[in-house]
Write a structure and sequence with these properties.
Blueprint: H1 35-57, E1 72-75, H2 83-99, E2 103-108, H3 121-137, E3 140-150, E4 159-168, E5 176-184, H4 190-199, H5 217-222, E6 229-235, E7 241-242, H6 250-256, E8 259-265, H7 273-282, E9 287-293, H8 302-311, E10 316-321, H9 328-343, E11 350-354, H10 357-369, E12 373-378, H11 387-396, H12 403-411, E13 415-424, E14 428-437, E15 439-441, E16 445-449, E17 457-460, E18 464-466, E19 469-470, E20 473-475, E21 479-483, E22 497-499, E23 508-519, E24 524-525, E25 529-534, E26 537-546, E27 551-552, E28 557-564, E29 576-581, E30 584-595, H13 599-602
Helix pairs in contact: 2-3, 10-11
Length: 611
């Protein structure tokens, strides 16, 4: 999106006197500087400065020109449109909302070429009234994000530019959903912060807010997350927070929200690193939130989690927690430490400290436009400092994918990744995961596999739940749980996929990938055994060969052929890959699949519980 965080006074030289040359200081005096020449020089300098300042005040500031695609619209003014013009404006707003997945940003007082003209108070009031009527016609609400004054005329007349967020209430629970992976070292306050955001109550300083997020008894006893838990935070069409403080169930939150933030609370301890990697690769988060404790700074797995997010190209923003426990000097020291790490080669990030509501708007908009911007927010889960800025940041945060990309994914065959498997009383077998492509409906018949024998089994999808509430249709990119009735749970495992029968899926034991070795204490050679993570697949594999090289050292690249040790897996070309061997790590993407020869004979076997 577009930011208005700029100085309206241009710093360019005045174009009225290009190439103007000033006389030498020793002109007519043989190079000697006298009192008279100094006074003349001072007067000429003051005159030039005054002309330059007047010229700078008259130079209008600009935004980037308006793009035809996207959810950003520039409007100079919307004062008393004719009925035909109003219908055209409403249709245009509907198009912008579709491009933004239910959200659009209107810049009032800006021309199409990006020039910030501004409007008087009366014209701005009339324009906002017209925009409100347009939003009501398409079933949306408007929220004023911020107002800016533009002053560049010689008569110093003040004009305003208003930035407005328009958000539509989607139908059939198809709200805008963003997934945020929560990273950070153990005891950095991740689960407590999520508990405060989703429950709406501050922590008591002893971890009361995080108790609702834990899934196992040992997590409650130790206070450390060892599994992946999901929490939701909603925003209604007016940008107000919707959480468990005013809603009893998750279904009520979904019904009252136009935008949903799904937090994935990942483990911070090093011995649960495989769980954290699985969450980052399998659930395909849109953003990552790295939580750093202000009193300990960068410690433990903080650097490792930051490196994982950067390697997987997940946009990341930082939250400095527990600022109530530290002095101001300690917070500033930790902040400087974070800024140094972000600016180092390999990161090349630009830290953006969010300290005001205007900063939150600017950070959220520039965060998705530029891969180098990294917002930093300071919060306290006990005192509540900075929580409103974090909520405002999450409210304005736009989706990364466009509507066209979403439609292209929905047109592809159905492919659902199986990440979790449950047995629910009176329901039967239930699988949880993410729909990578296509659409999935209740009663649809799919293939699940590959099995240990390398085949696929037929099944029927019973009911679908998304964010703990019923859903009839699942679209690409959405996470949900699917009820499979009395399908035998022992035949399922993590890493399987459920695909459309017309897809004719192929599996492989061997594949090639273009990799870069992030770190290795010695050398990476043929015969090495590593744990390979590709999407929801996690299995040990052997390195069969390195094309063109005998061995790899840290930082080197190569095309490597891997072979799974246990059984064949379903992979996609171009899928992100991460492998590890102790502290050694590498990343890459799949470039070639070597399918099994008996794959076609074992596909599409019927299951005795298929209905």
């Amino acid at each position: 999106m577009v930011s208005l965080a700029m100085d309206v006074r241009s710093s360019e030289p005045c174009p009225l006197h290009p190439g103007q040359r000033t006389p030498g200081c020793g002109s007519g005096t043989g190079g000697r500087i006298t009192k008279k020449t100094r006074s003349r020089k001072g007067k000429r300098g003051r005159r030039r400065k005054s002309k330059k300042s007047r010229c700078n005040k008259s130079s209008p500031p600009y935004l980037p020109p308006e793009a035809e695609e996207g959810n950003i619209e520039y409007k100079l003014k919307l004062v008393s449109p004719t009925p035909q013009r109003f219908e055209h404006l409403a249709t245009q707003l509907k198009w912008r909302l579709q491009e933004g997945g239910g959200e659009a940003v209107y810049q009032i007082g800006v021309e199409d070429n990006g020039m910030l003209v501004g409007l008087s108070q009366d014209d701005m009031k009339a324009s906002l009234h017209t925009l409100q009527r347009m939003a009501e016609k398409v079933g949306a609400d408007i929220t004023v994000l911020r107002e800016r004054e533009v002053e560049y005329d010689l008569d110093r007349t003040s004009r305003k530019i208003t930035e407005v967020l328009v958000r539509k209430v989607p139908d059939d629970q198809q709200f805008l959903d963003l997934r945020v992976a929560v990273l950070g070292n153990v005891d950095s306050g991740k689960s407590t912060l999520l508990g405060v955001l989703t429950q709406g109550e501050l922590d008591n300083g002893r971890g009361r807010a995080r108790l609702n997020l834990f899934r196992h008894l040992h997590e409650i006893q130790t206070g450390r997350t060892s599994s992946i838990s999901f929490e939701i935070l909603g925003f209604n069409s007016k940008g107000e927070v919707v959480n468990y403080s005013d809603s009893r169930t998750a279904e009520e939150i979904c019904e009252n929200s136009s935008k949903m933030i799904t937090f994935m609370d990942l483990a911070g301890h090093h011995k649960y690193l495989k769980t954290t990697i699985f969450g980052l690769l399998s659930y395909c988060p849109d953003f990552a939130m790295l939580v750093v404790s202000a009193n300990t700074g960068i410690a433990g797995t903080t650097r490792e989690h930051l490196g994982l997010a950067l390697a997987l190209k997940v946009p990341i923003f930082l939250v400095l927690s527990k600022v109530d426990l530290c002095s101001r000097a300690t917070v500033e020291r930790t902040l400087r430490q974070l800024q140094r790490v972000l600016k180092q080669p390999g990161c090349n990030k630009v830290p953006f400290l969010v300290s005001r509501p205007d900063d939150a708007v600017t950070a959220a908009q520039q965060f998705t436009q530029s891969t180098s911007i990294t917002p930093i927010l300071l919060v306290s889960s006990v005192g509540g400092e900075g929580l409103q800025l974090l909520q405002q940041f999450l409210n304005i945060l736009p989706p990364l994918s466009s509507s066209q990309e979403q439609e292209e994914l929905m047109e592809q065959p159905t492919e659902f990744q199986v990440d979790e498997i449950f047995s629910v009383p009176d329901v039967g077998t239930v699988v949880g995961g993410t729909l990578y492509s296509g659409v999935c409906r209740e009663g649809e018949r799919l293939l699940v596999g590959p099995t240990d024998a390398g085949g696929f089994l037929r099944l029927r999808v019973g009911s679908i739940q998304r964010n703990r509430s019923g859903c009839r249709l699942l679209r690409a990119g959405q996470a949900a749980t699917l009820a499979l009735g009395n399908f035998d749970r022992s035949l399922l495992r993590k890493g399987m996929v459920m695909v459309s029968p017309r897809m004719n899926p192929t599996i492989c034991c061997q594949f090639e990938a273009s990799i870069v070795l992030l770190f290795h204490a010695k050398t990476f050679r043929r015969g090495s055994q590593v744990t390979v993570h590709v999407g929801n697949v996690r299995q040990t594999a052997t390195v069969l060969c390195l094309q063109g090289k005998e061995a790899l050292r840290t930082g080197e690249r190569a095309v490597v052929r891997f072979r799974f040790l246990k059984h064949a897996e379903y992979l996609r070309l171009g899928a992100k890959l991460l492998f590890r061997e102790g502290v050694a790590k590498g990343i890459g993407h799949v470039t070639r699949l070597l399918p099994n020869s008996n794959n076609q004979d074992q596909n599409q076997r019927p299951h005795r519980h298929d209905r």
